[in-house]
């Protein structure tokens, strides 16, 4: 029996969350084409006859411009000191850049075995793939260099075998029925944020944070009142009726940094926020297996990415 922690690291938007979900066969981390989507460490448990690999999705290591960015980088560096194996991911289609070189230098300081994964082989040309593999090989002393496609699943069986080859012997780390240690409220907030950043303008994704204020059956989450902190805009349908069995009421707030950003997230007549609510509710009902009343609001938390108190309030 082999077991241990495996860190998925790389610069923003190389496909770490997509790989995590693909290996597990279900969604535990949100995904987006927008960089720096992941803001927390998400753990998913991969079980095979050989043992148990706890995959740790991390934020993309980047040049920070805000306090939030600094904290996310610290989170990545802290994770690297706690794991048994590292998967260093590079985007084959984009090629090796300065960010990859920087992270490779960071990894050279630790003694943890590292697999270099050249991702997106499904969209990279053959010439680009060969050059990326050569460039990655020259970046460090890797245990293995593996081309993969997190999106289509190519080579993931090979990767899975290598994970258990390099993990140490040990007992399972999680209960047999547990796939992730991510709290349900956090997952709900992340799904809402994923849908929001997919719909808003390019400059806004980094400015959006989501907090689930209340979550429970109608008798525990009273109808007809606003979430804590003041008025907002509702998205999600009519007020829930307490007599509807199995209904889960979720009241969440989307925070932006400036007053000028609020109408962008709301959309004309609240249309964009309603779309966010519809998309999030549809996915959450499938994942959680229950009917959901989703009540969304938008509020301003001025320059929250740079304010320590605001960051703490928003869970960062």
Report on the architecture of this protein.
With 316 residues, the protein is an alpha/beta fold. Helices cover 32% and strands 21% of the residues. The chain is built from nine helices and nine strands. The protein has a six-stranded mixed β-sheet with strand order 2-3-1-4-5-6, with helices on both faces. Strand 4 (85-91), helix 3 (98-107) and strand 5 form a beta-alpha-beta unit.
The residue fraction in helices comes out at: 25-40%
Q: Can you list the strand order of the major beta sheet?
A: 2-3-1-4-5-6
Strand content: 15-25%
Q: Report Rg.
A: 21 Å
- Kindly report the average pLDDT value: 85
Estimate the global geometry from the Cα principal axes. Answer: globular
User: What kind of sheet is the major sheet?
Assistant: 6 strands, mixed
- Distinct helical segment count: 9
The succession of helices and strands, N to C, reads EHEEHEHEHEHHEEHHEH
The class by helix and strand makeup works out as: alpha/beta
Total beta strand runs: 9
End-to-end separation? 36 Å
Low-confidence stretches: 225-234, 236-242
Question: In a nutshell, what does this entry contain?
Answer:
This protein has 316 residues and is of the alpha/beta class.
List keywords for this structure.
single chain; 316 residues; alpha/beta; 6-stranded mixed β-sheet; 3-stranded mixed β-sheet; 32% helix
């Amino acid at each position: 029996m082999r077991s241990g922690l495996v860190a998925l690291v790389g610069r923003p938007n190389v496909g770490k969350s997509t790989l995590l979900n693909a290996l597990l066969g279900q969604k535990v981390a949100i995904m987006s084409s927008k960089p720096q989507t992941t803001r927390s460490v998400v753990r998913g448990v991969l079980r095979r006859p050989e043992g148990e690999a706890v995959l740790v999705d991390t934020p993309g290591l980047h040049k920070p411009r805000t306090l939030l960015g600094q904290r996310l980088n610290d989170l990545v560096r802290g994770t690297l000191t706690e794991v048994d194996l590292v998967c260093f991911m590079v985007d084959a289609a984009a090629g090796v850049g300065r960010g990859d070189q920087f992270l490779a230098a960071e990894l050279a300081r630790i003694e943890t075995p590292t697999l270099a994964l050249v991702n997106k082989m499904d969209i990279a040309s053959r010439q680009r793939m060969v050059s990326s593999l050569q460039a990655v090989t020259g970046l460090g002393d890797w245990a293995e260099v593996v081309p993969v496609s997190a999106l289509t699943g190519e080579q993931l069986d090979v990767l899975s075998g290598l994970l258990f080859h390099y993990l140490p012997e040990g007992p399972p780390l999680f209960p047999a029925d547990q796939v992730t240690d991510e709290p349900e409220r956090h997952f709900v907030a992340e799904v809402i944020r994923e849908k929001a950043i997919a719909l808003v303008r390019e400059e806004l994704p980094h400015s959006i944070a989501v907090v689930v204020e209340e979550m429970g059956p109608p008798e525990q989450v009273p109808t007809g009142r606003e979430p804590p902190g003041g008025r907002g805009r509702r998205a999600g349908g009519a007020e829930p009726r307490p007599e509807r069995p199995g209904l889960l009421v979720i009241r969440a707030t989307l925070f932006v940094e400036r007053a000028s950003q609020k109408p962008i997230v709301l959309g004309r007549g609240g249309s964009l926020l309603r779309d966010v609510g519809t998309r999030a509710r549809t996915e959450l009902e499938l994942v959680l297996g229950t009917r959901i009343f989703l009540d969304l609001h938008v509020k301003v938390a001025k320059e929250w990415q740079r304010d320590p108190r605001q960051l703490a309030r928003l869970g960062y």
